[in-house]
Design a protein that fits this description.
With about 130 residues, this protein is mainly beta. Helices cover about 15% and strands about 35% of the residues. It has a single domain (about 30-134), classed as Immunoglobulin-like (Sandwich), CATH 2.60.40. It contains one helix and nine strands. The model is unreliable at about 15-25 (pLDDT under 50).
């Protein structure tokens, strides 16, 4: 047998043996499984002069599979949305306004502010807060 073929054969055997040695063990996929939005509730006057007519929101990771560690800082991958786009706007621009909801008019009750983040496995995780604009 040619020396290069022999080396290739040995490497193939070692790789195959290594795969067999895994014994069907599963690995934990580290992903975000839950987030929280802070503050959970807020009330702002839409008639106040800026920036008093706005509320800043942050999203934080709160759960992941055992053995997974995430930085406990504000999640800058969140996409923000609001249920009342007539009276509230929210920024997804990655600057000082990111996550800031501005009351442009009075809401008829509490509007829902939603943060959606990529979980890390191709899915998304969301959570909400409430914003009332008086």
């Amino acid at each position: 047998m040619h020396p290069y073929r022999l080396i290739g054969f040995i490497v193939s055997l070692l790789v195959f043996a290594g795969l067999l040695g895994c014994g069907g063990k599963t690995t934990t996929m580290c992903k975000i499984t839950a987030i929280r939005v802070s503050p959970a509730t807020a009330t702002v006057s839409h008639t106040a002069a800026p920036p008093a007519n706005a509320q800043h929101f942050d999203a934080f990771q709160t759960a992941a599979p055992a053995g997974c560690a995430f930085q406990q800082s504000n999640l800058t991958t969140a996409t923000w949305s609001v249920s009342d786009t007539t009276n509230i706007s929210i920024s997804n621009v990655h600057d000082a306004t990111y996550g800031t909801a501005t009351c442009n008019g009075a809401t008829t009750g509490a509007a829902t502010v939603t943060a959606t983040v990529p979980a890390g496995d191709g899915t998304n995780v969301s959570n909400t807060a409430s914003l009332t604009c008086n």
